[in-house]
Amino acid sequence: MSLYDDAVLVLKGYEDQEALRQAYLEHLAAHPDGMWKACEDGHITASALVIDPTRGRVLLTLHKKLRMWLQMGGHCEPADAALADAALREATEESGIAELSLLPGGPVRLDRHHTPCAWHLDVQYAAVAPRGAVEAISDESLDLRWFAYDEVAEVADESVVRLLDATRARL
């Protein structure tokens, strides 16, 4: 199965945010290249909020280009077999934590936002950090830091707060 086909199946199975889910599916139907950064009308991206539920905290990255505290994530790559794989790869690369595991149940949220390259139709997952996880900053970040749940709204925008809320509801 192709990454495109996986994305369509994942989105068809996602049961929340009906209007946005439908917009993603319509975008993919109109853009066979809609999984890739080269699609200038917008493209599917995958992200994951790295969470440490035992300590009540999340790991955020200070994005180098956007200069905002965000969850880990980015563009899909040809080697990604599934959207979940892309989200886990991005979370692993940007956090430096090798043993992350995605929360079961598929995506936690969808979030569409404009970036310097195009519209991102982000499919958002949550990844649980193992006990004793040690993060390592990547070249895509200015900083990488753990924040207590109640600190997130002070440093990140509403999209990250909504993702944290949805993740905590899923736990």
Q: Roughly how many Å apart are the termini?
A: 29 Å
Name the helicity range: 25-40%
The amount of beta strand, in percent, is: 25-35%
Radius of gyration: 15 Å
The average pLDDT value, as a whole number, equals 96
Count of distinct strands: 8
Count of DSSP H/I helices: 5
Task: Return the structural class.
Answer: alpha+beta
Choose one word for the global shape. Answer: globular
Major pleated sheet: 8 strands, mixed
Low-confidence stretches: none
What is the N-to-C order of secondary-structure elements (H for helix, E for strand)? Answer: HHEEEEHEEEEHH
What's the topology here?
Layout: H1 3-13, H2 18-30, E1 43-52, E2 57-63, E3 69-70, E4 72-75, H3 83-95, E5 101-102, E6 109-114, E7 119-128, E8 141-148, H4 152-155, H5 158-170
Parallel strand pairs: 1-7
Antiparallel strand pairs: 1-2, 1-4, 2-3, 2-8, 5-7, 6-7
Describe the protein in words.
The protein is of the alpha+beta class and 171 residues long. It contains 5 helices and 8 strands; from the N terminus they run ααββββαββββαα. It has helices at 3-13, 18-30, 83-95, 152-155, 158-170; strands at 43-52, 57-63, 69-70, 72-75, 101-102, 109-114, 119-128, 141-148. Strands 1, 2, 3, 4, 5, 6, 7 and 8 form an 8-stranded mixed sheet that branches. Strand 1 and strand 2 form a beta hairpin. Helix 1 runs antiparallel to helix 2 (18-30).
Summary, kept brief:
The protein is α+β, with helices and mostly antiparallel strands.
Features:
8-stranded mixed sheet, 5 helices, 29% strand, 32% helix, 171 residues, globular, alpha+beta
